[in-house]
Amino acid sequence: MFEIFEFEFMRLAFVGGTIIGVLAPTIGIFLVLRRYGLIGDGLGHIAFGGVAFGQLVKVDPIVMAIAYSVAAALGIEQLRVRGRLGGDVAIAIFLSSGLALGLVLARLARRSTDQLWNYLFGSVIMLQPRDILQLALIAALVLGVLFVVRRELFFVTFDEETARASGIRVGAYNILLVMLAALTVVSAIQIVGLLLISALLVLPVAAALQLARSFRQALSLAVGSSLLSVYGGLIGSYYLDTQPGPTIVLAALVLFVLVNLGRSARFRVA
Amino acid sequence: MSEPVIEVEDLWFSYGVEPVLEGISLRVERGDVLGLIGPNGSGKTTLLKLIVGLLPLQQGTIRLFGQELRRFRERARLGYVRQRSWDFERNFPASVEEIVRMGRVPRLRWGRWSRADTEAVERAMRAVHVAELRARPISELSGGQQQRVFLARVLAQEPEILLLDEPTAAVDPKVEAEFYELLGRLNREQGLTIVLVSHDIEAIVTQVTKIACLNRKLLFCGTPQECLASDLLERVYAGKKLVRHQHSWG
Lengths: 270, 250
Prior knowledge:
The structure holds two protein chains of two kinds.
Chain A: H1 8-33, H2 39-57, H3 61-82, H4 87-108, H5 113-121, H6 129-158, H7 160-165, H8 170-187, H9 197-211, H10 215-240, H11 244-269
Chain B: E1 4-14, E2 19-29, E3 33-37, H1 44-51, E4 59-64, E5 67-68, E6 78-81, H2 96-102, H3 115-127, H4 143-156, E7 161-165, H5 173-190, E8 193-198, H6 201-204, E9 210-215, E10 217-222, H7 224-229, H8 232-236
Helix pairs in contact in B: 2-4, 3-4
């Protein structure tokens, strides 16, 4: 069982997975409750455009991905606030154009499809200590900001109108939230990949919402189920020789289904 | 003359071309319980939203505590309970206590939670008898209980004026009567100024000290007795008999 930890990349994957496992549902719970569940998907696709552009102009792809997705997050929020487009349409526009841009740019940069595949679906084998450091820094920033504004964000998430009436700057918190989401998505690039991070933002939260009786409980349950999925997925991928990113997502899905089955069984008994 | 806390002067507002408020002037003094009545679409909610700053001022002036609305920054002094406050995301995971604690957010200094904040939350929950429900998820409560939780949230904010938009539209008459009883007590004991929007005059007529009747224009403003004595209600509601509405909660 423990031979899995003999490999340096597996140890790094567990450390990185733990960080992502905590970070993703913590921001995800606010996104899901605000019905922003798909924004992770949109931002992931856009970040891919950033990665490809970074390769083309020889700038660190992660830095470029952050720049792209943060800018897009602001764009999506602006489109939504102005009310000309629904949030879902705004995300859809950025999502497909981000991916298209990424593929065109990658072709121009003459990158092999293998490398692209790694960004899209994660590649723990390529993990370096430097990547973990980068991930830890982003996570510390996002979690730190979330901790400071948690009460305001909770209020805005539950009841935007009342929060606004009591003088809370709702628009600023909305922008902050999408920017933090953008950072989170990019930070997950090597563990689960840009296309699958959305699942880790949403699935553990969806499972937790089935059981939680308070927000505090929902957050703990979401982080717990996210970590279980990450560990289960990493171990599973090692023994099944599958890719970690998709395996983690499937583990999260299994957990979500189990929670739902358990819940409906309990209701039948009660 | 007592201190005016809300002064509205020649207020006009429109969402498109047609104005929904036409030259409204209104004065609320400290300790007043003002019932704002009028048929659906008469601009009651719009007026309230303008006062709490949810809609931009187009024409006219609003002063709060003697200060121009544009310059007014102490929003926590106004407690607003919106229409359909029970209409929230059904599976939102929030306990009663977590909801009531939201009320303190506008009062926090540098985001720090102090003992005074905890005490304000406790007082608010006790005042409306929801302290024993503190650990319950909001979604599991009845309509009347939810109503009290949202009132506790706004009381935790320790506002000087309460603005309530149709606060009892989803509860049965018994709960409604209890709710108004509670508001009366808060007004007498804590000197809270209350502005209450309702389309149901019978329910509020005995609870308020002043009635303002709105139908785009301000048609009447005075004591409830004067209001009932006039034929105004008949005209405003176009002969519709004023009956207590039986709302079902489901």
